[in-house]
Amino acid sequence: MNLNKALLDSGIWLAQAYLITIALSAATIWSLAKFTIWGRQFWNLTAVYFLPRRDWRPLGTLLLILFLTLCAVRLDVLLSEWSNTMYTSLQKQDSAGFWAAMVLFAILATVHVLRVLIEFYVQQAFTIRWRVWLNEDLLGRWLARQTYYRTQYLDNPIDNPDQRIQQDVATFVEMSLVLSMGVVNALVSTFAFTLILWTLSGPLSALGIELPRGMVFLVFAYVIIATVFAVKIGRPLIMLNFLNERFNADYRYALVRLREYSESIAFYAGEKVEGALLRNRFAHVISNAWAIVYRSIKFQGFNLSVSQAAVVFPFIIQAQRFFSNQISLGDLMQTAQAFGRLQDNLSFFRTAYDSFATYRATLDRLNGFTRAIAESRELPEPVIRAQGPRLAVEQLTIRTPAGGLLIDNLALDVLPDAPLLIQGPSGSGKTTLLRAIAGLWPYCDGTIIRPEENVLFLSQKPYLPLGSLRDALYYPQRLPGQVTALHADIHQQQKTSVDSAHGAPINLDALPVAHNGELETPVGGGGRAEEVLHLVQMGHLVGKLDQVTDWGRILSLGEQQRLAFGRLLLAAPVAAFLDEATSAMDEGLEDALYRLVREQLPHTRLVSVGHRSTLSRHHARQLILKGKGTGAWALANVS
């Protein structure tokens, strides 16, 4: 094996293979995207990422990965030729040739190691950046126009959207690269090693028929037949893997709900019911896991049998030619290696079928996610217009999802000096009216006029985000300096990861954990947050404003509602909607907080929903919904 000639031939081979592979890959991708369902799914999901006009780097990185993959194939070919040289020198007892082969191996091995390390870094960087982009794309679409909320109104809402964003995106990105480069490697290697086997293969005689280069045709027939059977055996794995993701996500979601509603469950002593639900969902997981095991045993057993039979096959075929001195030991060993590589490459689709099954299930789940987003945006929406600070509805009709009438042809204006109280029997549509004004309820007609920005909705059970009490108080506003805090927190996490590479800490749970960018010291707002806490009679928590914990569990419902009033004072919105926002307070505290809001926010248009008669004193007008499917309503001044 001449090193200089090998380098020249390798350069020519790589250039030709690279151009041909790019052309064929482009044609294949276009064909798959045009004529196959899963090809269109892939294209719709991520084609934008690879558009050069958006950013040339993803496509450039992919082309570099393709080049490194072809380098791997060429190195395998060179190592195959090296093995022939080495075994031939052993057969001839050529000491000089043997040690020259060892030097050549050192060179090839060094190149191989460098190629593997470079390829690893480039691939990991590519998948991380692709995952970041796809996560942001799906997350942005999921959050836009309240899609995360509106999808619940679809006829077939998707299950576990959180898992599809967090887990399926990572799986999709990693497997897309692994499988695509695996296909390229398998096909190019098949071509390269077919040429090697063609030159080493002799005629094969069977039943009086002599087949020139018989081993080449035999290995192709062997693998094609095995692949057909493998596909039939492995096809059920697609649905089983899909169900595996669903059942595990359902079980995890039930466990999360147990933690989220632990107090209510404990008061009800509902452990038996919750335990039965959890065990039932876990039983689905295990039942499906056993089905995967049984199917995988059949699939892997068949694959292993085929692969093991292929180990001795070339030796049996070539043994007669070797013993008759038609080929050397090097030729025999290279034949076996070439046959093995060719068999492995041709068997790629058979052995990787379970991976393709997992990938197809993941692609289906992500496609279902994007389809649900698209369908949610096709749901009807009320006409919402902005006319400065004005808050009004005109000819607004609201229905239930089943078509029942809740409110018929409502028209009213809300003025800053005339707060509105909405009352009526349960089920009459009080909260639904607020949802319609917020643009969340799709089953309505008419016109809604409201400020475009700075509108606040307070629900009966306030939402407290993860983080500090200051975060909860300012929500949904961002704290001054929070972006800087987030970057500092990420830097701390990266430093911890690097430090851990030099030795794992004893207690992994004690590592610093990111908290959405919250700092342990005040980051803004001056004394306004402290002042507001005193105003809503929660001054005892001033010292804990920047403590990061699960405040939704620590604070009682009444305290959470008071905190929401503090949020209202800090936000100073143009319009505010309070839905049973004082239901957990006593009447004296309710009176004090409503007076506080009117004193602090005299220009805010205020709309309240509530059952208490004591609310009337704080509102100038009252909207009574009649309910009972009539859609009737009455608007009156409060005396």
From TrEMBL:
Domain ABC transmembrane type-1 as annotated: residue spans: 59-358
Organism, as annotated: Pollutimonas nitritireducens
InterPro entries xrefs: AAA+_ATPase, ABC1_TM_dom, ABC1_TM_sf, ABC_transporter-like_ATP-bd, ABC_transporter-like_CS, ABC_transporter_sub-D, P-loop_NTPase
PROSITE patterns associated with the record: ABC_TM1F, ABC_TRANSPORTER_1, ABC_TRANSPORTER_2
The keyword ATP-binding belongs to this UniProt entry's keyword annotation: yes
Species classification: Bacteria, Pseudomonadati, Pseudomonadota, Betaproteobacteria, Burkholderiales
Keyword Transmembrane: yes
Mode of membrane association: Multi-pass membrane protein
Keywords (A to Z) from UniProt: ATP-binding, Cell membrane, Membrane, Nucleotide-binding, Transmembrane, Transmembrane helix, Transport
Protein name: ABC transporter ATP-binding protein
Cited SUPFAM superfamilies: ABC transporter transmembrane region, P-loop containing nucleoside triphosphate hydrolases
Residue intervals of the ABC transporter domain: 391-638
Chain segments annotated as transmembrane: 12-33, 59-79, 99-122, 177-199, 211-231
Gene Ontology CC annotation, any one: plasma membrane
Entry's localization field: Cell membrane
Highest taxon, organism lineage: Bacteria
A Pfam family the protein falls into: ABC_tran
One GO MF term attached to the UniProt entry: ATP hydrolysis activity
